[in-house]
Design brief:
The protein is an alpha+beta fold. Helices cover about 20% and strands about 40% of the residues. The chain has a seven-stranded mixed sheet with strand order 3-2-13-14-1-7-6. Strands 30-27-31-34-32-33 form a six-stranded mixed sheet, sandwiched between helices. Helix 3 packs across helix 8 and helix 5 runs antiparallel to helix 8. The longest helix has 18 residues. It is globular and about 70 Å long. The N terminus is likely disordered.
């Protein structure tokens, strides 16, 4: 059901000086060749990197494994074997290449790789093939700096923002609808995380940005929706952000995919509602993960002559779960709010970094038999301890029972599987398969807004039924 991506990539760089020689047996273009040219050392942000294939010279271009380079810098690198496409995402730039083609795309813009250099597959004899791409083009496309130290035989790749203290420099706020105010806080460099938001009895919502400073005024009037003003202050090792709220019903704070924007949504009580402070859940956080996304669409299914992708259904249901939990005073973090692809470990890392008490991943199923039907909930036996007060199996049972009360789709029960997102989470974690997209009758239900609302209510109610037992992992 889940597409596995092969992440083995190497990079090409044109230089005119070479250093000492070495002997390697290389295989490419259907042949085997003895390489006796020069090899180089590699430095990423002033740190030596041991590569799976040593940097070499190929047709006057220096080659270096791209995964070793760019994943060391925090980029996401994917290779789609079926289409031979290469995807590299770094900060807010998305680069797409293809084996054997000089065409490339930086975000949505078409460009041609200089020098008519095309990505190609090369393997050291007896080892897996690596994908070769032009490193200068890739690096500069992603905003990185490349330097060749010919005298010492070193290729240096540097992110000028590496180690930079992020600065909070801008804020935007607007009304999403009649009751929801959305705020965006902009930083000039990525941050690793933000702390769990705290809502006080005095109506103040605050959180900290570690290792950050700011250039904003200490107090900024907002007067939008439930948000009265924004206050920021620099402390020892962090910047604190505080929002003074009035008639706040619920809130949500999340870090964007590129980790340079803090997204805040504040919902106020309508005039007809009873205005009471939201229950902050004693600082408890729930992470909702919409499976797949971006370049990974997941499975798909067709009904009524139209094809639907899993990633879209997952996101729609996940947002509905978020809204229900938020309305009940739970702090909810989403692994993705749009059509992006966080890696599997990025998803559990978000939950772990924010001391979440529950992690729930939303997926849609598929099978070779069109008759397969029903929803099911998985947990990992490797993550089923109840040291936080709640076990993954208890959470799974609660959600299964709750969904069965809200939808008429077949209940396939609780199952175990060591999915990465559930296995690597520090808190009770589940993966929910809401139905089979390969079953046209079931897919017609899954795409219904009413049925999605029922699924979301089942998931949310199942979480709310046990959240008071769950404590942040130590």
């Amino acid at each position: 059901m889940k597409a596995k991506l092969l992440l083995l990539i190497t990079v090409v760089l044109c230089f005119f000086k070479i250093s000492s020689a070495s002997a390697l047996t290389l295989q490419y273009n259907g042949g085997q060749y003895e390489y006796t040219g020069s090899v180089y050392s590699l430095m990423v942000n002033d740190q030596y990197v041991q590569t799976s294939l040593p940097p070499i010279i190929f047709n006057d271009y220096a080659l270096v494994p791209i995964r070793d380079v760019f994943e060391a810098m925090g980029a996401t690198v994917k290779y789609i074997d079926a289409s031979q496409q290469i995807f590299i995402e770094y900060n807010d730039t998305y680069l797409r290449l293809k084996i054997g083609s000089s065409d490339a795309y930086i975000d949505a813009n078409h460009v041609t790789i200089p020098g008519n250099v095309t990505p190609m597959l090369i393997a050291e004899a007896g080892r897996d093939a690596k994908t070769m791409v032009p490193v200068r083009f890739v690096s500069e496309s992603l905003g990185l700096y490349v330097e060749f130290d010919g005298g010492n035989g070193i290729i240096k790749i540097v992110d000028s923002n590496a180690g930079k203290q992020p600065v909070l420099y801008n804020v935007k706020c607007s009304m999403f609808d009649s009751v929801t105010a959305t705020m965006e806080l902009y930083l000039d460099a990525p941050v690793q995380s933000i702390t769990t938001p705290v809502y006080t009895e005095a109506g103040v919502l605050y959180f900290d940005i570690p290792n950050a400073t700011h250039s904003l005024a200490n107090t900024t009037p907002i007067n939008t929706g439930a948000i009265k003003q924004l206050r920021v202050g620099i402390h020892d090792g962090f910047t604190r952000v505080a929002l003074d709220l009035e008639n706040c019903k619920s809130y949500n704070v999340a870090l964007s995919e590129n980790k340079k924007i803090i997204l805040i949504a504040i919902v106020k009580f309508e005039e007809t509602e009873n205005v009471t402070p939201p229950n902050s859940g004693n600082g408890k956080v729930v992470v909702i993960d919409a499976g797949h996304g971006g370049s990974d669409p997941g499975t798909s299914g067709s009904v009524g002559g139209k094809t639907y992708q899993e990633k879209d259904i997952n996101l729609s249901v996940a947002k509905k779960v978020r809204d229900i939990l938020s309305a009940n005073g739970v702090t909810v973090l989403m692994t993705r709010d749009g059509d992006t692809y966080p890696s599997l470990t990025d998803r559990s890392d978000l939950a772990n970094a924010n001391n979440a008490v529950i992690f729930a991943s939303i997926h849609s199923n598929s099978a070779s038999a069109a008759s397969a039907s029903g929803f099911e909930v998985y947990y990992s036996v490797q993550n089923n301890e109840s040291v936080t007060g709640l076990s993954s199996s208890e959470l799974a049972s609660s959600v299964v029972n709750s969904i069965s009360k809200n939808v008429s789709i077949r209940n396939r029960g609780v199952k175990t599987e060591n999915h990465v997102v559930t296995r690597t989470s520090n808190m009770p974690a589940i993966l929910i398969e809401i139905g089979f997209m390969s079953n046209p009758d079931e897919l017609s239900l899954m795409i219904s807004d009413d049925v999605q609302n029922s699924f979301a209510k089942g998931v949310a109610d199942g979480i709310l039924a046990v959240i008071n037992k769950a404590n942040p992992p130590q």
